[in-house]
Specification:
single chain; 14-stranded antiparallel beta sheet; Nuclear Transport Factor 2, Chain: A; 5 domains; alpha+beta; nine-stranded antiparallel beta sheet; about 20% helix
Length: about 725
């Protein structure tokens, strides 16, 4: 510009400024709206977390991170790793016990969690807040942490950048969050092993459905989006206070003395229980509640506690039952339950009897995200009969009591019981107990898994971080052949509570039309010396074996040998109440793009699926035994075995199955391509690809700012034009 005159230099600079402002405006239009929406969405989710997770944290995350990073051992664990700070929560007295020698008592030490993107799993430490020192650290390669405020920015930003999410939600900042970010998994996707988080929003269409955005935190992509259906409102119960109202405490009655305290994410930790001054257990708590939905296929890893995805509401209740007392605590996501979608309402209970027996109980009050689901509370029981050592463990196997010499997993647990109806026996001197699961499922579908482990440091004695979904980890990851009987043992008890839709409520169809809990009861009753039955006694016990009704405190009907019909007035209602529409599109019923194949034309192709098999026979067997024939293609990739529930033969009568088959035979909406070969067995599913994405119209998120930018550019342009005109006019006058 040195050869230009002064006016020419000014005009040239104004032109450059004008071009720069135009470029900045364009970049802002393309990028800033998404970032603005992300900021609003993050703020909304954080507000919901603050409302739901009412933890009174007595420290700052910055302070905690500095303490951990200054510690040489933690610095080495974090070195050369891509990590993210996830959370820091206070430890209860019982959870802090492994670090008691380092000064950890009640709430003066914190559990700190980082996620390890480089290797998977978490890097954990315990910080003494009084001394600002790290007093313990460890790796957990199987851990998959829950959502938290500190991962919100990244999670929402990944979702907001996805074209499918933009097309469905538009401005993600304007979307209404339905739940706090939840730790989730998908069976047929990398989210089975990777750490994934589910963001959920109310459907902008206003139909009451929930739009799910599952974010793979490791790959930084949206793994899947889908809708779950809305439901009609149910009768409201009494409103619950949002105030954090649980109470820690101790209670002495009927010979028992037990204490408890609320934990951050392991529910109530019942601890130091004695009966007639004899130690019985040192800790019982719930590390996670896994919710499984075949329609995804996948689910959530819920946590219960004062800093968990499902926090406590209402008082901790101590109830005298005449021959026993129970301590119970309700956990729920929303105070306007049950009129919410994807809302969870759990109850943790232990009942203590005057004869020394006790019962850990769990209730899922429903409803969850979809019609078909299984709730799995992970109970950890640290048994200390007569003290921590010398607890012998026996398992009923093949008509005899067999000592459990090494760690093991027991499944099934509710079948093949001793003549007295028990599965496990525990003995230490004169203290003896027998263990079994009470049958409470109205259709007789009771199921559970039971794990016997040697007690080891770092295996759940402190805070428990959830593991990969649908794997029973922990505790399965800790079974490594260690001796158990005769030492210090820990039991993990995982009941499987299977929901049923009928009436149209969830869990058990009874006892009340608006409140339908399903309950799991582990009965641990006092017993005498272990007795090996004789052959004659076994024959007599088998001959006398008849189904007996179990007393049901919640009025759940006793199991019967025949199915309870699912209520329905017509075939369409039967199909929906049976849950078929949760996974399949069947003409106008159900939802497309879910886990199951589209059945809208099954009436045209069923007869040709299996050579020599009629359409009726094929459809009947596919309902009663869904693993018999696996079709090759499902909406998210190859169809997988063990996704469709395998208990319809018990959940439906033969007449109802026939009704569904007859309806499916009428499904002839489109001429589908008819395969000529037999159906193939299941094959390992490749990585699932998302549905084709369409860019939605980009909304204008800040009209005022955009208007200001346009005015500024216009002003500079007019000034440039004025100076240019003046310069040209001046040059003409000089030329003349």
């Amino acid at each position: 510009m040195k050869n230009l005159s002064r006016p020419q230099q000014i005009i040239s600079k104004l032109i450059i400024v004008n071009l720069a402002l135009l470029i900045i405006s364009l970049v802002w239009y393309l990028v800033a709206p998404a970032e603005s929406g992300v900021a609003v969405a993050v703020a909304k989710n954080k507000q919901m977390l603050d409302m739901m997770l009412m933890a009174d944290i007595p420290f700052s995350s910055e302070e905690i991170q500095k303490i951990t990073l200054d510690n040489p051992e933690m610095a080495q664990l974090l070195s050369r790793k891509k990590t993210q700070f996830v959370n820091a929560v206070p430890l209860s007295r019982g959870e802090a016990r492994p670090w008691q020698a380092e000064g950890c008592e009640q709430n003066n030490c914190a559990h700190v969690t980082y996620y390890n993107y480089s290797d998977g799993g978490t890097i954990n430490s315990v910080v003494n807040l009084d001394t600002s020192q790290v007093v313990g650290s460890w790796l957990d390669a199987k851990a998959r942490p829950s959502g938290s405020t500190y991962i919100m920015d990244k999670t929402v930003a990944i979702a907001a950048a996805d074209e499918t999410v933009q097309a469905e939600l538009g401005d993600i900042g304007a979307a209404d969050p339905a739940m706090v970010p939840m730790s989730t998994w998908l069976t047929d996707d990398d989210c089975r092993d990777d750490w994934c988080v589910d963001l959920s929003y109310f459907n902008p269409a206003g139909d009451g459905r929930i739009y799910h955005v599952i974010v793979n935190m490791e790959q930084e992509i949206v793994a899947r989006t889908f809708l779950t259906r809305g439901r009609a409102d149910r009768s409201m119960g009494p409103a619950l206070s949002r105030e954090r109202a649980f109470q820690d405490g101790c209670h002495e009655q009927y010979g028992w003395n037990v204490c408890w305290e609320m934990t951050a994410h392991d529910g109530i930790n019942f601890r130091d229980a004695t009966f007639q001054e004899t130690p019985i257990f040192s800790s019982i708590k719930i590390g996670q509640v896994e919710a499984w939905y075949p329609s995804w296929p996948g689910g959530y890893r819920d946590e219960i506690g004062f800093a968990a995805s499902v926090p406590p509401y209402g008082d901790t209740q101590i109830t005298d039952l005449g021959d026993s007392f129970q301590v119970s605590q309700l956990f729920t996501e929303f105070t306007y339950w049950p009129n919410c979608i994807c809302c969870y309402r759990y109850e943790e209970i232990i009942r203590f009897y005057a004869d020394g027996s006790f019962e850990p109980r769990f209730i899922s009050h429903g409803p969850g995200c979809d019609d078909l689901s299984i709730y799995r509370p992970f109970w950890r029981i640290d048994l200390d009969l007569n003290g921590p050592e010398n607890d012998s463990v026996w398992v009923w196997q093949e008509n005899q009591w067999v000592e459990a010499t090494t760690e093991m997993e027991i499944y099934p647990f509710v079948d093949d019981l001793s003549p007295e109806g028990n599965k496990v026996a525990t003995i230490d001197g004169d203290v003896s107990y027998r263990w079994h699961m009470e049958r409470t499922d109205p259709l007789g579908l009771d199921s559970m898994r039971f794990f016997i482990l040697q007690k080891k440091e770092g295996e759940g004695d402190g805070p428990i971080v959830t593991g990969p979904g649908d794997t029973f980890q922990p505790p399965r990851q800790w079974i490594d052949g260690d001796p158990v009987s005769g030492g210090d043992v820990v039991f993990w008890y995982v009941p499987l509570l299977k929901t049923k839709k009928g009436g149209p409520w969830w869990c058990a169809p009874d006892p009340e039309p608006d409140f339908s809990p399903c309950e799991a009861i582990l009965r641990i009753e006092t017993a005498g010396e272990l007795h090996q039955p004789t052959a004659e006694e076994l024959v007599e016990a088998e001959a006398n074996a008849t189904p007996t009704a179990t007393p049901q405190p919640t009025a759940v009907p006793a199991p019967t040998a025949t199915p309870r019909p699912i209520e329905a007035a017509n075939p369409e209602e039967l199909i929906l109440n049976a849950g078929c529409g949760a996974c399949h599109s069947i003409g106008s019923l159900g939802e497309a793009h879910k886990v199951g194949p589209d059945l809208s034309a099954i009436g045209l192709i069923a007869e040709n699926r299996i050579p020599g098999m009629t359409a009726e026979a094929y459809l009947h067997e596919s309902i009663a035994d869904p693993n018999a024939y696996i079709v090759p293609d499902c909406p998210n990739g190859p169809c997988l075995a063990n996704i469709m529930p395998r208990d319809y033969a018990n959940r439906l009568t033969e007449e109802q199955i026939g009704t569904i088959v007859a309806y499916l035979l009428t499904m002839k909406e489109a001429q589908a391509e008819q395969p000529t070969d037999a159906l193939t067995p299941p094959t390992p599913a490749p990585k699932a690809f998302p549905a084709p994405k369409m860019m939605g119209e980009r909304p204008l998120k800040n009209q005022a700012l955009l208007t200001t930018q346009i005015l500024l550019v216009t002003l500079v342009f007019l000034l440039t034009a004025f100076l240019l005109l003046k310069y040209v006019t001046g040059e003409k006058e000089i030329g003349n």
